[in-house]
Predict the structure.
Amino acid sequence: MSGGTPAWPRAHGAPVLQGRIRDVPEDFRVEEIDAFAPSGSGEHLLLTVEKRGTNTAFAAKLIAEWAGVPESAIGYAGLKDRHAVTVQRFSVHLPGREAPDTAPLEADGTLRVLARARHARKLPRGALAGNRFTVVLRDVQGVRDAVEARLRSIASRGVPNYFGEQRFGREGGNVAGALAMFSGRRMSRAQRTHLLSAARSQLFNRVLGARVAGGHWDAALEGEVWMLDGSRSVFGPVPFDDALAVRLADFDIHPTGPLWGRGELRSAAAARELELGALADDESLALRAGLEAAGLSQERRATRLRPRELAWSWPDDDSLELRFELPAGTYATSVLAELM
């Protein structure tokens, strides 16, 4: 459905609580987990910034204005939501220049500079190890024992690795935008990038939803393609044996689904049959054709996501605080959807 974001099947059953989220930005805190340390010298200034109630693109614009450079001189590893308090790094290209005082940048309270250092290169997209979340749910209604049992289940089994609703735009409109683009509507380069990502994400979520409905989002199908935990390296299909079963149980490997593009699906047998069956409706066929025509190649994404260091506490009788870490490119909403 392109007229909104679908409610994808849940793996752990019906929600065990109701509550409110993001009453204030401080209720949703995200901190990037850095993938590397600053080099200590170079043409770029690396800023670690805490921002409140503003998205990454707007923060980059503020930093560019402060530094007196074009926005193209600003780098960042990942996009962070506006309705949150987030900590992330930005790079500023300042060859042969000293950085100005940060006081004007911090004047309105939107941004706060936590650290600064010189670095040799512009910060590229994806250059982070993951994200650390602290989420506070308010006006929680639910049986505490059931809530904590669900959290233990999520910690031990993981959750389906859906793309989050942020990928699809307001009311899921990016999928409709992708279909319009594939039908010939002209888009800017930035729009095109977002719409291609949304189209790919929609197809992946359809396949993952079918696997969740069938009860094998975290189990092997015949013809499975496997992804190594913590990387994008894949292997298979290979016959499923006891050694692979141990690696699957230990979260060393994960089943995968397709990120659509040109070329043959790598999966085979039952896995391939499920993937093609989930993507046989008219909308999926149009998205598949558009992605192939755009020149993207077939890739894979893990179907299973396990939050690391999942912990929780009850600040009061109707508030629940969750703390966990996720790899880059995954979504806290996938965890919350299995709970509330």
Q: What stands out?
A: The two ends are 23 Å apart (CA to CA).
